Protein 1
Amino acid sequence: MTANTIEKYYDIWALRTLSETILNYDVLHRIWSLETIGIYCKASLVKNILNIHEKPFSIKRGLLEVRSAFGGAGLYKMDSTKNCYYSGANRTCEHVPFHLCMREKNQARIFINPKFIHRRLHNIK
């Protein structure tokens, strides 16, 4: 189970949906590859690729199954982590290969729980 936030969803880099076409890619790699083409400004890419996905999930919503997520916190059943390890190799978010391994090797399921609120330090008043 992974967390949600109050102001904006945190850690889009770790998020991979179950969809084949919607946010099942590395948003930072997408920005970097489009930036190298030289026809897009970085601010526009960040706004249109990254920021549009940062809306927090309504706490009225049920669990949302995903391939990978984090949101600032994650709780795992120990059996689901067997033979899976964190790795940030290849400039990839470390949660993604870990969660994909858990799903593949241990038939684990990853969920965002909209009611599991992670408050980042700068949000605490």
Note: The helical segments are 27-37, 42-50, 95-106.
Protein 2
Amino acid sequence: MSDCLFERVERCFVQAETFFKRPFTRPEVSLKLRGQRAGVAHLHENKLRFNLELFEENTEDFLHQTVPHEVAHLVAHQMFGERIAPHGHEWQLIMRGVYELAPLRCHTYAVKRRQVTRYIYHCPCASEFPFSAQRHSLVRQGRRYLCRQCRQTLVFSGETRLE
């Protein structure tokens, strides 16, 4: 099924080459993107990364909108250089002119959020502060965080919870 994604990337490049009458360097394409983003264009590495899970759940729209969106970033970079805004005028022109698509910045796919552990910190004014694992680790390495109300150091309560 992912073959159709690779084929769509190629068709998008051929479409841009026909429109601009010039060749474009093909990127490395990866299906190892995770999280909330559907796709990412790494301009300097000439690489596209796509979220396989979101692709499988939203195949039709993904092929229609997301793939051209990411290819347009690489085409804009190769055409206009690196001083352009990611979703700026040049990228929008490519989305409208080459692909005849609305230049939408974000997808609307349903994204399953994974459960994360929160480390509960308290202060003397009884406020509760759920810390991420990364912030909790920084505290264990010596970093201090203060309550914005009472300005006292936040202290780990020993409690955790899944969110």
Note: The chain has five helices and six strands.
Protein 3
Amino acid sequence: MTMAGRPRQKLRILCFGDSLTAGYSGMGSVFQPYEDRLTQMLEMAFPDTDIDTLEDGKSGDTVKHGFLSRMRRHFETTDPPEEPFDWAIVLGGTNDIAFSIPAEEIYERLKEVWDVALSRKSKVLALTVPEAGVGAAGRARLDARRNALNDLIKGHEQEGFYKFDFNAAFPYFALSEADRTRYWDDAIHFTPDGYDLMGNKIGVELVSILAKERADLNPPVTPRKRRRVFRDDDNTFEEEEEKGPNAIDRGYVVVRRKDLD
């Protein structure tokens, strides 16, 4: 129970994806999932809410071959059934792009993955695929495939579906050399500090969405303006009672301040 005597709210979130969701770093010697920092941010933003997150990031997995069956295990085939998720945060496509799988094919499979969660009344926050710090020789082709997929993700519209342009929020080439060293571990993965920053950025986006939802459900009540009472407002003037030439319908008009409010 809260201090006000109301039951605490609950929020359950699935963080789903590949090695970037798992927090892979140091050639697999360190794992620092963004889930940890995301949870901290949500707890700070909503102290009246119990935050429960589950990380399911599988290194090397592709959207085309692995994502759908894994997502179904969370929403359709668990025994005993898992407690329902309110949100699924999905990031995938990095490995598919590396295998030259066409953007449209990745997108079609992502839609199936998103629909598993959406059909179970879970909302989805889809992340765009971040840059890869590859050399100039192969960068143009890689950028074209990634940008094509990200454009499809950003253009998707569906009830309960939200998207966050993580690619724009967490660049590689636009960073200074110092920041790149601090946040990027290799051409694909982040350092522990980078995964914390990832959690911060996703957290800011999700907190903003949740805060707006709560505001829409509980709009502020505008207090009624108190009518000011002025002297003589309740007086009856003799012209109002006149029946002769001074009667009010002979040209007199009585306007009280309360009639103007």
Note: Residues 192-217 form the longest helix (26 residues).
Protein 4
Amino acid sequence: MRITVRYFAGARAAAGEEERVLELPLGATVRDALSAIRADAPTGLPRVLESASYLVNGVAVRDQGVALNEGAELDVLPPFAGG
């Protein structure tokens, strides 16, 4: 199945791209997607992924065991400074 990973702010800078399409097996989870990203990630991206928040189809997920569906969008949001 295909999903789209979208990077925002510092995650975009670390990834060196705005988004990418991943091919994952059916039943893949957020954890599986993150493993696939780490497999060929630029040096700084894995560190960003450790502290990032994630949205699947616009909904925040805290459990990386959440299953993804064909065409899902996984947003990677690094911690933001401010108040």
Note: The longest helix spans residues 30-39.
